[in-house]
Amino acid sequence: MIYNVALIGYGYWGPKLARNIHNSSIFNLKFIVDSSQKNLNKAKSEFPLSILLKNYHKIKNDSVDLVVISTPTKTHFFLANYFLKFSNVLIEKPLSLNLKDAIALEKMAKKNKKMLFVDYPFIFSGSINYIKKIIQSKKYGKLNQIETFREQAPIRTDADVVWDLGVHDISIFKYLLKSNPKKITSLKYNTIKTIKKDTAYINLHYGNNLKIFIKNSWISPIKIRLIKFKFDNAILFCDENEPIYKLKIYTISKNNKNNYKLEIPGIDLSEPLSNLIAYIGKCLKKKQNPIFKNNLNVEITKILEKI
Ligand SMILES: NC(=O)c1ccc[n+]([C@@H]2O[C@H](COP(=O)([O-])OP(=O)(O)OC[C@H]3O[C@@H](n4cnc5c(N)ncnc54)[C@H](O)[C@@H]3O)[C@@H](O)[C@H]2O)c1
Predict the structure, then answer these.
(1) Pocket around ligand 1: residues whose beta carbon is below 6 Å from it?
(2) Cα 63 to Cα 66: distance, rounded to the nearest angstrom
């Protein structure tokens, strides 16, 4: 079975979704919609076989199996609410601008027996899934601390840096740890004249004495996507900017706790977005959505709102 897709929004992120949908053998990129003629022209030159529309109302309820929404966050609730009445929906992160809307969208999906996926790309990455296995197996002992640095990204005007970048960290921790933080403290700043807060320092305290520090900032001369996981017997660096050696494991010497040996594990390097698209294909076929069950989207949004 081939599933028909409508992609709404062909700005910065939309073309990456389009390429991965187009490259998948289970999906047909039937429609590309963008209210900007310039971006529609770009879509036409890159995907000449897709039907190009300026207005999403032209998509009829029997013509698509999946609607992919990659428009600015302030439009997410309205668009997802519209399409969930007749289609499964993949929506860009963050799902919404507040918890109330996230809950309403989940309710809408349930009511209409549709699946709602959110693009949290890192939970579909080989590196994060490798780390998940290490945490579960306790290969390096207990996990005690995590520090994450996510810096440099386009400045948004509808969502602050926590909802825009911090959502990646929160989705990763929700996926890896299952549990929720017991205590949250945060400082948020405007380091330059942005409409929304552009920099955040966040501390999350989990049970079992696990402490997490998150730094998010749009404002940085270099792009940083680094997470450090500190276990009893190893410190693991996960650098999503590295093309191949994304994971570096520094095992700690038993005799000298500040003496390390480097190991570089082989990991699955396939593009997270292509893994996400393949996952959605399987979910549509099996009518099951294991990763997003147990209210993953609402749980993530709850933490964002608390921060
Ligand atoms: N998953 C990720 O890692 C990741 C990365 C970047 C952006 N994003 C998310 O993707 C979304 C889009 O971000 P972007 O950077 O591509 O934004 P963008 O402004 O570059 O593109 C948005 C596009 O949507 C179009 N659009 C807006 N309203 C529309 C409507 N009602 N109908 C049709 N088209 C409409 C605009 O014309 C524009 O082409 C945001 O929610 C952002 O947070 C996710």
Answers:
(1) 8-14, 33-36, 39, 56, 70-73, 75, 92-93, 119, 121, 154, 164
(2) 9
CATH superfamily ID and name for 122-269: Dihydrodipicolinate Reductase; domain 2 (3.30.360.10)
Residue 121 alpha carbon, nearest atom of ligand 1? 1
- Under 8 Å between Cβ of 123 and 180: no
If phi > 0 it is left, if psi is from -120 to 50 it is alpha, else beta; for residue 9 that is left
In the reported structure, the alpha carbon of residue 241 is separated from the centroid of ligand 1 by a whole-number distance in angstroms of 22
* CB neighbour class for 161 (10 Å; exposed up to 12, middle 13-18, buried from 19): buried
Question: How far is the C-alpha of 170 from the C-alpha of 58, rounded, in Å?
Answer: 36
In whole angstroms, give the CA distance from residue 79 to residue 59.
12
Residues 82-92 pLDDT 10s: 999 999 999 99
Closest of 131, 149, 143 to residue 209, by C-alpha: 143
With a pLDDT cut of 70, the percent of the chain lying above it is 100
Average pLDDT in the chain: 97
Instruction: Determine the length of the chain.
Output: 307
Count of beta carbons in the 10 Å neighbourhood of residue 262 = 9
Per CATH, domain 3-119+273-288 is 3.40.50.2300: no
What's the confidence (pLDDT) of residue 62? 84
As given in the structure block, the two tokens for residue 175 are: 């996926």
Residue ranges covered by each domain of the chain: 3-119+273-288, 122-269
**CA–CA separation, 228 and 141 (whole Å):** 15
DSSP classification of residue 232: S
The model's pTM is: 0.97
